[in-house]
Amino acid sequence: QPMGGYQQPMGGYQQPMGGYQQPMGGGFNAFLATLKTDVMMIIRLVGALLLFIAPFFSWFAFKVKFDGDSEKETANMFKLAGDGDIGIYAFFAIMFFVLAIVLVVWEIADYIPALANIKYKMQMVPYVDLIIVAVALLFVILAATNGMDGNMKDFKDTLKMYKDWYDGVKGYCNHGVGPIIGFLGIAGAAVPRILAMLNINVGNKRYM
């Protein structure tokens, strides 16, 4: 380990074979240098970014088109929590933000000694970062399957009524692209970690 870094205690948490050597310090320049060559880190960071921005995309989308006229309604998490008066989506959005920030901090911690020491202590719990990703996945699933207190059902029933009563009615009612962005973020955060856990090398792999 570099001078000033922590000493791995005997019997402590062991990284998988082929895992990375924990760097200490180096600051932003060292982080950028690693980022340029570490494809898996880039994928993990993109995953965290997608998770962070997912609440800004639509989590409710409704459209009906008939006889040249159309009606459309979309709402992101904030609109659902405000105008839609479905407060649970405010909680979902906050959790997305918090978990995404934790995943980003996890990546940069190695280059900031104080954060690196905290990360090392957290790693005493095996695969704690995968546990964080799993928690994020749980919230994405909950947000993607939430029925919005019957509002989704009401819109679906309205769309079905239009289709039953009139010919040529087209439309949809779903959760929009938000869940897609959320699941892509989870995939980006999880896949590199799972590959490393299985000791599968892809590019300049580092288990984080």
Could you explain how this protein is built, in words?
This protein is mostly helical. It has a 3-stranded antiparallel beta sheet with strand order 2-1-3. The chain is built from 8 helices and 3 strands. The protein has helices spanning 27-37, 39-53, 77-81, 88-108, 113-122, 128-145, 151-165, 178-197, and strands at residues 58-66, 69-76, 170-174.
In short:
The protein has 208 residues and is mainly alpha-helical. It contains 8 helices and 3 strands; from the N terminus they run ααββαααααβα. A 3-stranded antiparallel beta sheet has the order 2-1-3.
Main features:
about 210 residues, disordered N terminus, elongated, mainly alpha, 3 strands
Largest sheet: 3 strands, antiparallel
Order of helices and strands: HHEEHHHHHEH
Return the structural class.
Answer: mainly alpha
Strand order of the largest sheet: 2-1-3
Beta-strand content estimate: 5-15%
How much helix is in the residues?
55-70%
